[in-house]
Amino acid sequence: MKEAKSPSAAPCPEGGTRVRDRIFRTARELFYRQGIRAVGVDAIACGAGTNKMSFYRSFGSKDELVAECLRAQVSEFWEHWDASIAPHAGDPRRQIETVFESSMSKSCGADACGCPLSNAAVELREAEHPGHQVIREYKAEVRRRLRALARDAGASDAEALGDALMLLLEGSAMTRLTFAGNGGPIVNSLGAVHTLLDAYLPARKAAAAAKAAKPAKSARLAKATS
Amino acid sequence: MKEAKSPSAAPCPEGGTRVRDRIFRTARELFYRQGIRAVGVDAIACGAGTNKMSFYRSFGSKDELVAECLRAQVSEFWEHWDASIAPHAGDPRRQIETVFESSMSKSCGADACGCPLSNAAVELREAEHPGHQVIREYKAEVRRRLRALARDAGASDAEALGDALMLLLEGSAMTRLTFAGNGGPIVNSLGAVHTLLDAYLPARKAAAAAKAAKPAKSARLAKATS
DNA sequence: CGCATACGTTACCGACCGGTAACAGCCGCG
DNA sequence: CGCGGCTGTTACCGGTCGGTAACGTATGCG
Q1: Percentage above 70 pLDDT, chain A
Q2: Lower CB count within 10 Å: N or C terminus of chain A?
Q3: The predicted structure's pLDDT at residue A209
Q4: Are A18 and A12 in contact, with CB atoms under 8 Å apart?
Q5: How many angstroms separate the CA atoms of B147 and B163, rounded?
Q6: Nearest CA in chain A to B140
Q7: A64: which nucleotide lies closest, measuring CA to C1'?
Q8: Per the domain annotation, does A3 fall within a domain?
Q9: Does residue A6 lie in a domain region?
Q10: Residue B16, pLDDT score
């Protein structure tokens, strides 16, 4: 609830030897790895090297902690999003590819467990949960940004392309939970993105002037897995 | 565990006034609507009009019930899958479209909550859960069948097309949970399927377009490739 | 020094969890 | 009739859940 402000105005550095920060990091990790409902506050406090009482001195309730973890995840994602598209300003197609690779590397990496926001959407079905709105707003913004990128890239149907990209993104994160390692359908998700881009975007790219479907996979995949 | 066979050889009709069947139906509904971990055996028994003791007379444990619900869901899905592609034998492209529409209508309909198997994959993270293997096998089979259909349709890269279709399918089910009603990205998922099919399949769409009055969206590729 | 912040510790609460024991009634069927 | 399945009912178990009270202590700072 209340923000614990140090009286000496210590600006709360990122390292965070403070109990609250340790609890926060531990909670995010446990929620992500084992699921939100599967982790109790006792396990969080114990994992953070403290006890339940210190937990409730820093957070009003478990639901509030969950919502705050989700908000932190959203901020982190947007940071990575902005950082990934910044070097390719003026090249929307490259931005789409980059943002897709960036998102995939976060949610579909070797030790990843999918998208923490999507997973939370499955676990938190009650509409009144404080984390529910965080998830909805985040997903709506993802959709909005993908559509905007598709429009900037000159897509023949920006809404359709943006939505298709979002479906691929969500599907990649989801299949990551079921298929072990990197052997699942995500090995072909970047190829699908390129195919969609080739289909919806004007063929202004001289390098990709070849046929849309066939040769795209092997070349792009080699680049992606490197 | 053991199949309760009526001594009078009543063949256990589908209606199921039996307690076990009522519990089973109630459990599937509650698990799907509210999530597996969010529903206790008390709520299931009470929702089925009975009590917890009768629950444990029919099912060994909650985890076993969960696994059995997932198995029933898998069987039901394959039934619909087979029934949906049967009328279009010999037209693999139409089969892909139909199976996609069928799956979407089950998991992304007005009152749907996504794919129950995918949702269970998020909720049941422990690998030793009896339902875990059911989910993995089902998803692996979905992938295998989609790739087979892509190969039958003569895709230039059957694995890539099949995987891309699967990602769209999973993404559609997942976004259904976050975006209310039919306003989410799933409105464009069928369009994405058609775009992918047009990109990966040989251009034999003249005959299909003439016969199928269904999609008005497959004309988009003409604009994209021109 | 005294005071406040931050944290650890122990014990506790009511509620619910999954799961069980014991008993009583109903009903079909020999 | 009596027997055996199926069901309803009540009570109970140990454990865990989210959450709280009370007390002790270390540190920092005026």
Answers
A1: 83
A2: C
A3: 41
A4: yes
A5: 7
A6: A179
A7: D18
A8: no
A9: no
A10: 62
Tokens linked to B115: 């794919």
Is residue A121 located within the same domain as residue A212? yes
Report chain B residues whose CB lies below 8 A from the CB of A188. 159-160, 163-164, 167
Confidence band (pLDDT; 50, 70, 90) for A219?
A: very low
Domain of B51 in residue numbering reads as 18-60
* Interchain pair A185, B163: CB under 8 A: yes
The answer to whether A175 contacts B156, with C-beta atoms less than 8 Å apart, is no
Same domain, B127 and B199: yes
Could you tell me the distance in Å between the CA of residue B159 and the C1' of nucleotide D16? 46
Confidence of residue A204 (pLDDT cuts 50, 70, 90): low
| B152 shares its domain with B111 | yes
Q: How far is the CA of B58 from the C1' of D6 (A)?
A: 11
- Whether residues B88 and B34 fall in one domain: no
SS3 of chain A: helix, strand, coil, percent, to 5: 65, 0, 35
A25 and A112 fall within a common domain: no
Question: Chain B residues with CB inside 8 Å of A136's CB?
Answer: 178-179
Residues of A in contact with B222 (CB under 8 A): none
Q: Quick check: is B68 in a domain?
A: yes
Q: What is the pLDDT along chain B (226 residues), one digit of tens a residue?
A: 333 333 332 233 344 678 999 999 999 999 999 999 999 999 999 999 999 999 999 999 999 999 999 999 999 999 999 999 999 999 999 999 999 999 999 999 999 999 999 999 999 999 999 999 999 999 999 999 999 999 999 999 999 999 999 999 999 999 999 998 888 999 999 999 999 999 999 986 444 444 443 333 444 444 444 3
CA distance A11 to chain B (A): 36
